[in-house]
Amino acid sequence: MFRVVTWSVGSSASVVAVTFALVLLLIPTTAAQAAIAFDRATLAKSFCGDGAAVSRGAEAIIRSAATADPDDLAFAGTILRALLDRRLACVGDSAILLDRAGAAEGRDAVTGAAAAAAGARSPVVGLRQRGLAETAAGIAALLTGPSVAARAAGLSGLERRIANVPDSDAILERARGAETDAGLKRAIVQATQAAALNAPDPARRRTAIAAIADAPSSAALSRLAALRTDPAYAADPAFRGALDAGIARAERAVALGNGLALAYNGLSFASILFMAAAGLAIIFGLMGVINLAQGEFIMVGAYAAYGVQEAFRRLAPSLIDLYLVAAIPVAFLAAALVGIGIEALILRHLYRRPLTSLLATWAVSLFLINGVRVAFGSQNLQFGMPSYVSGGVPLYADFIVTWNRLFAIAFAAVTLAATLLILKRTPLGLDIRAVTQNRDMAGALGIRTRRVDRLAFGFGSGLAGLAGVALCPIYSVNPGMGANFIVDSFMVVVLGGVGTVVGTLVAALGIGGANVLIEPFYGAVAAKVIVLVGIILFLQRRPEGLFAARRRR
């Protein structure tokens, strides 16, 4: 600890100048020493002095940050933030913190007591003083910020001027040791490595290059590639060799990480596509109805999930994180009931008229879209993301396993297992398979084919509703959301083979993966066109699709 010594001189500005000259001389230079405490009243007065005093105050904070007392750093950060936001007023030697710029009252910066700001003046802050103040405020926020966002903002402020910060390594090491957020801790480590890249010691630079290559990312690769313009790259063979090897290793890792990310995104998209198409495959395979309203059943499921969220928010706000799980049966039943109602009122009269049934389901889709627009509006719904579908974990290079997409993949796997169990192990599934293979024979054996049609239509619609729940954490939810999936769903059904769940799964994986793989190179529209052309060419050779359903004639 050190003491600030003052003595009587002609003016307060001289007192401040002499005080901070002594401060800069007395600050220890090693981070291993005990925490430094500084005189808060003197610090507050410095920011009410002239531009030179403001500079000295900010420099004192920067130089002492590696070992300063945390409470003093937090105090300094508050003063600096008020200075930068024009919320610092000076009345004589007193610094007053205002709630907003131009306020008539505030509180004393040191004592916290209420103070009037009438006749107060604003401190002098030039461009150089502002730069120093922003750097000091960033360091204070990084080390003492109350939230992850505040500390991350402080790190960004420090990184902008890190080359001019003495003991920056010690500051970053202190921040890394105190940080509890894994993501921000990684960012601090990366900032430390980036600072080491510009160190004067060649050995330290080579060590930093190896460390960055061992933790690859696109940002790290850009930092390494920028060093090829450094004079040392041409002058120092050891540096050049280390840099070339590090860049090559980082490029391989980033390419692999990007490939994993594409595969992961393709799998999540295929999962959604499977749930959207599974019900369509059952309906089309059983009744031969081309249901153009299947996308709107997805929308019904998503809006049902929104209704469950709002119910939790009003009735059980402490359990709001559970709404997505509770929405699963609600969305299934809501979409299933809508589907059963449509089948009973409209489609049962049109089974022998495929073109008319197609037009009827198109009319139903328009009715559902506009009905939801009237009831809820056309804007995107706002969903609160539960903790189990928020964020993710970095796995390799730039590849991050996001929980929302993992939720969709796991949900699709459970849906697949439940669908196969119902179709293979329940009386309803046996009836659906019998009617799909030979409707007339199934009716002759006593199966109530009309009842099977209705329940199967409801079951297929309910599966689409489940897709709406899986979509909530990933895509925008609005009345027109179903149109984005209906074409792809029909392609999945036709390619997989009409009426086969396994074929639907394989086709969804193929089409979803192909779309995601092609889209980065040629764009979303071109990707869909290429996939469609590929399906057409495949169906020329195999019209029944990948897996043809067994039928008795």
Descriptive account of the structure:
This protein is mainly α and 553 residues long. It has three domains: 12-176, no CATH class; 201-256, no CATH class; 257-481, no CATH class. Helices cover 67% and strands 5% of the residues. The protein contains 22 helices and six strands. It has a four-stranded antiparallel beta sheet with strand order 1-2-3-4. Helix 12 (237-287) crosses helix 20 (483-496). The chain is elongated, with a radius of gyration of 33 Å. Residues 1-36 have low confidence and may be disordered.
What secondary-structure arrangement, pairings included, does this model have?
Layout: H1 12-26, H2 40-46, H3 51-64, H4 70-84, E1 88-91, E2 94-98, E3 105-108, E4 114-116, H5 127-144, H6 148-160, H7 168-178, H8 182-197, H9 202-214, H10 218-226, H11 231-235, H12 237-287, H13 294-315, H14 323-345, H15 354-376, E5 392-396, E6 399-402, H16 403-425, H17 427-437, H18 439-444, H19 449-471, H20 483-496, H21 501-522, H22 524-541
Helix pairs in contact: 1-2, 1-3, 3-5, 4-5, 5-6, 6-8, 7-8, 8-9, 9-12, 10-12, 12-16, 12-19, 12-20, 12-21, 13-14, 13-19, 14-19, 16-17, 16-19, 17-19, 20-21, 21-22
Name a few traits of the molecule.
553 residues, mainly alpha, 3 domains, 4-stranded antiparallel sheet, two-stranded antiparallel ribbon, 22 helices, 6 strands, disordered N terminus
Gap between N and C termini: 95 Å
Approximate strand percentage: under 5%
Low-confidence stretches: 1-36
Biggest sheet record: 4 strands, antiparallel
What integer value in Å does the Rg equal? 33 Å
Extended strand count: 6
Helix count?
22
Number of domains: 3
Oligomer: single chain
Instruction: Please write the string of helix (H) and strand (E) elements.
Output: HHHHEEEEHHHHHHHHHHHEEHHHHHHH
